[in-house]
Amino acid sequence: MGKYILKRLFLSVIIFFFVMLIVYALIRGLPSSFVENVARAKSQMPGSKSYDEWLKQLNAMYGLDKGIFAGYLSWLGQFFTGNFGDSWKYTVPVIQKFNEVVWISFIMGVITMVLELLISIPLGIIAATKQYSKTDYAISILALTFISLPTFFFIALLQLVFSVKLGWFEPFGLVGRYYSQMDGWHQFLDKAYHLVLPIVTLVIISIGGLMRYTRTNMLEVLNADYIRTARAKGVSEHKVIYYHAFRNTLIPLVTIVGGSLPGLFSGALFTETMFKINGIGYISYQCMIEGDIPFSMFYLAFLSILTLLGNLIADILYAVVDPRVRLA
Fold first, then answer.
1. 209-to-110, 205, 244, 254, 272 alpha-carbon distances in Å
2. Residue 170: burial class (beta carbons within 10 Å; 0-12, 13-18, 19+)
3. Is-contact 139 130, C-beta < 8 A?
4. Please, which residues bridge with residue 93 across strands?
5. What is the structure's pLDDT at 326?
6. Residue pair 208/147 in contact by the 8 Å Cβ criterion
7. pLDDT score of 32
């Protein structure tokens, strides 16, 4: 196991090197950048230098006058020494801005994933065990409906019904107008209250795919020869389904759960934008479209590391879920 993990970690470092090289080249090739916007703004000031002069000076200041590969190696060296630079857009250290906005997205992501697993997997199992029944058709229609829902339309519908018509929730924001006057406990409740609709949105639009995936894999396992043999031996149906069949269904589900690790920190762009929540999804999008290279590179490097780590965890969990799998 130790040798396998070390081998995978070595391969992950190589993959990370080439992935971030591609990312750096793409970001350097964006049609608009923070440096160009600043140079344009400074050149329009009275008595200022020309745009080209400002652009040349700023590029030299930020190391953008180097070639892509040389600039990437310079960024990589700083990254591995813990020097992530300052965000050009927000003029604060990258790690500080990241720490300010990532945790609200992480909390939303964790709650969404837990609710998604608690809802989708049981419904998928029920649909598989009652194949072609009214229950199966109802769950399948529900899943397909959720899969087909456009995020922006569903958010607008929730805001119209529960905020405008019923007045149960606030349509926008993370805190209420009296947040600063509350004590710690009531501030926590105020944030939780404002997160209800965003989390409901994320859960609804995500459970459909996992429900269908669980149902499909469960049906495949239930039709296997060893399941028929277990039933022929008189094993109870409950044990057949939830011990023999479900244990083997977990293998593909582990892949999904392992792959969802980056999603916990990536935020939800549409949801955060429409509910006006400054999470990592919304902030990173703003940084990318304005060419904030330091923040964008740190954010994408962070997600790349989580993706590689999630794949490694999923592979290790295979051996835990299925004893037939050996990491050799």
1. 18, 9, 23, 15, 21
2. buried
3. no
4. 86
5. 60
6. yes
7. 65
How far is residue 237 from each of residues 227, 230, 244, 268, measured CA to CA in Å? 10, 9, 10, 40
Contacts of residue 181, Cβ cutoff 8 Å, sequence gap at least 6: none
Which pLDDT score is estimated for 325? 60
Q: Which of 214, 260, 303, 246 is nearest to 113 (CA)?
A: 260
Catalogue the long-range contacts made by 165-172 (C-beta closer than 8 Å, 24 or more residues apart): 169/193, 169/194, 169/196, 169/197, 170/194, 171/197, 171/275, 172/275, 172/276
Domains of the chain: 2-80 (no CATH), 96-321 (1.10.3720.10)
Of 263, 261, 292, which is closest to residue 280 (Cα–Cα)?
263
Contact 211, 120 (CB under 8 A): yes
The pLDDT averaged over each successive group of 10 residues in the chain (328 residues) is 80 92 85 75 78 79 79 88 86 91 90 90 90 91 89 89 89 82 85 91 89 88 84 83 77 72 77 88 86 88 89 75 59
Distance, in Å, from the CA atom of 92 to the CA atom of 101, rounded to the nearest integer, reads 13
Contact between 262 and 310 under an 8 Å Cβ cutoff? The reply is yes
SS3 for the chain is CHHHHHHHHHHHHHHHHHHHHHHHHHHHCCCCCHHHHHHHHHHCCCCCCCHHHHHHHHHHHHCCCCCHHHHHHHHHHHHHCCCCCECCCCCCEHHHHHHHHHHHHHHHHHHHHHHHHHHHHHHHHHHHHCCCCHHHHHHHHHHHHHHHCCHHHHHHHHHHHHHHHCCCCCCCCCCCCCHHHCCHHHHHHHHHHHHHHHHHHHHHHHHHHHHHHHHHHHHHHHCCHHHHHHHHCCCCHHHHHHHHHHHHHHHHHHHHHHHCCCHHHHCCHHHHHHCCCCCHHHHHHHHHHCCCHHHHHHHHHHHHHHHHHHHHHHHHHHHHHCCCCCCC
d(CA 118, CA 124): 11
